[in-house]
Fold these 4 entries.
Entry 1:
Amino acid sequence: MPQMLARPVADLIDVLSRLPGIGPKTASRLTFYLLRNQDGLAEALAEALQTLRSGTVLCERCYNVAERSPCAICSDPGRDQGTICVVEEPLDVLAVERTGEFRGVYHVLHGALSPIDGVYPEKLRIAELVTRAQAVRPREVILATNPSLEGENTAAYIYQQLAPLSVNVTRLARGLPVGGDLEYTDEVTLARALEGRGAMR
């Protein structure tokens, strides 16, 4: 049977369909849109994808994605280095920053504990957080993991790890939807959750 699609077209459809939230139909539409577009969009996309890896690093302090290390937030003298907000993903940093309520620094775990998916503590940046807390002795560590089963288990585990350091550990207040993600939470809800955070129990 002859190949129905040109190989480059089929290859791009295959790659795009592996992205989260994009199925084969959407991947096909995007591929043919890029093929038809005459405004240089495909070239701009290719260039952006090339520099995505080469132009970014993980911050040596907070493990957020940045152009340099330490990142702009960690190196900002106006930020409160004594308050560390722990989040699961880099997108969560953007969500908290949009509220305009937080002036501390961050620690990005790059995931949440999920033994069923093979995600154990050593796969996350938890050990680095403990080492950081030992060195910096922050006044407060805010656990801003997602209000899901994995997020709650991750917060509980981190609390246990930080307990011997006598660090003030808090958790975002309820008001965030259980099972939701920080990146999809509106600014008002997230701001209220930050303001109403409570001690970890």
Entry 2:
Amino acid sequence: MSLSFGLPSEAMTEAEIITLFRESQALLEGHFQLSSGRHSDQYFQCALVLQDPEAASRLGTALARCFKTPREISAVVAPALGGILVAHEVARALHVRSLFTERVNGQMTLRRGFSLRSGSRAVVVEDVITTGLSTLETVRAVEATGASVVALGALVDRSGGSVSSQFTIPLHSLLTMEAKSYLPAECPLCAKRIPIVKPGSRS
């Protein structure tokens, strides 16, 4: 199914975003292992909605509108792999650079010649945020360069808003949903022996 949209003149509503995810089959139900290691009966496969360039542009532009001081932002940074396209589209809308971090020997870092000037200001974005671990790791990688992170963003906040308490930096999300997740030892889906799927980008 082709998902073709023009750039929005106004911010997207949550209903529009949910429709966009459902039409692209990016909102899945079943038994999933999240990148955090927790289990859930719901999964957002953002790659399926972001595969359409116009849909990705629309979401990126909508998220960029959440940042009130775009002229002071010099770069948008995301953790690989899921956040790369989100960062690219947000950066396109803000007319700044798009960078991504990668995990090397267990530590998130900037590679491939990416750099940030000391004192510069950046935003960190994700596709889906649940526990905030990848976001925190990316923030630390940015701050290690001497730059500062002035805002955080995500297409989807799966925590129902509770994850924002993990940060001292404002978090903006296009869609906030409280999706249940469980430690593997406490997962009722495992207890029912429902086969688990690992759809994320982290093996």
Entry 3:
Amino acid sequence: MMAAMAAEHLIVYGGSFDPVHVGHLIPALRAREILAADRVLFLPANRSPFKMKQHPGASGPQRLEMLRLAMVGVAGCAADERELHRAGPSYTVETLRELHAERPGVRLTLLLGADQLQMLHGWKGIGEILDMAAVAILPRMTGMAADFSSVRRHLGDATAKRLEAGLLATPLVGISATEVRARVRAGLSVRFWVPEGVAGFIAREGLYG
């Protein structure tokens, strides 16, 4: 009798990616290795519910194209554009529902930066999210410990312990999209901050200047 095939394991990594940079890519690739996942899905948000007053520097199609350029020749990564086609804010719970409907039996892991822990209780459908996906946490800055106190206070001790167990030992890359945009505005090089194809696209499109 043939052994049953293992369920597909996808890492779901959402964000503005405005632009995508090595601080996104290196930890995500390491997370895939640590978790032995099949793929990382990068999902650029139409608008983050927590950033509704902020206007993105690049359009949705531009941010999607930068992700695709960043992943040229990189196995196990893909850009998923579904959230860009939804009107209004992008809700993770809707994305996870769709992925489960499209891929029955899929195993999902939601990849979050540690800075999201403080606002996690405010996410739409957070209980359903935690039922549909495991959660892996990326540390953000050297010397800055992930703070689970807000999770413990709002979502309970059991949830905090579950998320603490998902903290990954991924590389700490102290780069932000805000810094990348600021360097472009200042006329400074972003070589090595973003993949070469992304740097070329920023220059060709005149982004962030």
Entry 4:
Amino acid sequence: MKNLSDIKHRITGISQTRQITGAMEMISVAKMRRALQRFAGNQAYFNKVRATIAQIIRHSVGIEHRYWRPKHGGRAAYIVIASDKGLAGGYNNNVLNFAWKQIRESGHTERRIFTVGQMAREFFERKGAPIDAEFMHATYNPTLKDAAGIVDTVVGLYEKDFMDEVYIVYTGMENSSTMKPEIIQLLPLAPAEIAGGAGGGASGGGETFTELFYDPGPDEVLETLVPQYLIGVVYGCLIQSVAGEHSSRVQAMSNATKNADDILDRLNVVYHRARQEAVTNEMLEIITSANSVN
């Protein structure tokens, strides 16, 4: 006969775990929605900056700027965004393994790694890869200040000629339930990609002018706009990664809650059978004793 006390203790433990996973699922749903709302709000600002840069590229003659002048030294830096916590399904493993593959197969002679999130730092430490800079807690509640701090560090090193290319690896959100790891080249900028990605809004639709004049000049304007553009890109990557983390955690906690329900159903069946068996044995003992007395 199964021990009724052990079964009850196990049912109690799993019930408590189910309450935790259910609460975490609800919290992650709310956080994911807020992150997606912030990302949508940032897109308007980001698209405007990108469209302005596209206008400068299309309508300025003979422009040459260090932010999109190619370098050929083979030195690259990778900003890898993961989370500070686990319990998010395959979110961290997917983006970190993707980043590790990109780094190993890049063919660069020198690689620098900047980690965002504790899980990213621990991953590269296990791989034995040196970490040049880490940005902790930037994925808990990302702000433009967090993105600006990352961009200031990277752009400062880029301008001091410590690297030739800069990439950012993050989790892109296609919708609330679909996500995948992605990589973007931050520096040097690709003018064709910016101009093409800005779409018709960059040129104003039916504009007829062929050249724009800026005061004090396009180079000076770009000195201000390009860092703002990079901040917008990094902030968007942070927000998308956070939304992806919470979306993955929602799925993981939902699956954990369903598994707990299945286990509880099976344990309740086992418990009732064991209880019925115990009651039956007690009745048999009473009947046997009564017969013996008679």
